[in-house]
Amino acid sequence: MSADQTRDGYFGEFGGSFIPPMLQEAMDYLSKQFYTFKDDPEFNRELDYYLKEYVGRENPLTYAEQLTRSWGGAKIYLKREDLNHTGAHKINNVVGQILLAKRMGAKRVIAETGAGQHGVATATACAMFDMECVIYMGAEDTRRQALNVFRMELLGAKVVPVTKGQARLKDAVDEALNDLVENYKNTFYLLGSAVGPHPFPTMVKHFQSVVSKESKKQILEKEGRLPDAILACVGGGSNAIGAFAHYIDEPSVRLIGVEPELAPTMTEGVPGIIHGFRCLVLLDEEGNPKPTYSIAAGLDYPGIGPEHSHLKTSGRAEYVTVSNEEVLAAFQELSRTEGIIPALESAHAVAHAKKIAPSMSPEQILIINLSGRGDKDVEQVFHMLKK
Ligand SMILES: *Cc1c(COP(=O)(O)O)cnc(C)c1O
Fold this sequence. Notes:
By secondary structure, the protein is an alpha/beta fold. The chain is built from 16 helices and 14 strands. The protein has helices at residues 21-37, 41-55, 65-71, 90-103, 117-128, 139-144, 146-154, 169-183, 200-208, 210-223, 238-244, 265-268, 306-313, 324-338, 344-356, 378-386; strands at 10-11, 14-15, 61-63, 75-80, 108-113, 132-138, 158-162, 187-189, 229-233, 254-260, 270-274, 277-281, 317-322, 365-370. The chain has a six-stranded mixed β-sheet, with helices on both faces. The chain has a four-stranded parallel β-sheet with strand order 7-6-5-8, with helices on both faces. A two-stranded antiparallel ribbon has the order 1-2. A hairpin with a 2-residue loop joins strand 11 (270-274) and strand 12. The longest helix has 17 residues, at 21-37. It binds pyridoxal-5'-phosphate (PLP). The site of pyridoxal-5'-phosphate has 19 residues, from helix 11 and helix 15. Its EC number is 4.2.1.20.
């Protein structure tokens, strides 16, 4: 599905925009600018330049020889988003949106962050592009992620602790949106995943689809054929939609999203509206978004991007869950066998690959999207394994 076909922001029954009129005005303005620049040759030249020189693209599609031998089935390839500057896929979207913000004449960038990863990626790019940067973060999260707050400040960002509500991510999003309503003529809201009202899911996909654009070219060069399946972890869904994008219209390629057992949005979610868009969402008995829990902070979200919701209900993609134990085992196994310490989020995809690879034939190919590196998680895993 091309971005133009989804210009209204709907993917089947999901997506759209359910927000107050003031905010809708800001979204309409953003949409107009995005559709103006996304196919502009000069804009894309600039984007390619920074993806190469700053992010370090293209990153490799590494053949995981040891893992393939030890699992004894399909050939395993790893798409190495962990090798990007700042260590994950988030920077792809951040650089794209910052360049758009610049074209729109914005002087100020705001963002929400939960665990701090999107905040750090945003602060990084704002430093480089000399933009004023304000990061809204739940006060509760600023305490738990003090080091990431320091990182953002080191990069020149102002971190605003939000004390309203439960002082968590949802409250940080609300504060950022209030700021945007007031200031949208000179302020750009840089959203971190393929969620939110239109045009965010379409825009984030657009900037993350560089992942599958590269992997498709790389696998054709290496193997002369398409892979049999792509696996990616899903939180809000940005690394997965980027990893799937160029294969959605290739019916022979299975698309598999992997989520935590304790945040099973796709396997147990029902249609509903959160954060201004319609998607599959986990609700409690009262119909409120259900608290989720994942050892990978980046996957802790009760909703999921609207396109994933559609890919699931239409049957084009499959979504599965893995347990914390399986994730911890995969984290260690990839470290030991390939010398690559994955992010705990990415280890979800590795854990499911381990379940399906052995029953596949050696001619078959799996690509695991390694969304990020695990340096940020080493201390947490240390404490979990010590117990
Ligand atoms: C943030 C993050 C995720 C989850 O976000 P998506 O939008 O679902 O991709 C996954 N992996 C890593 C390394 C992250 O930092």
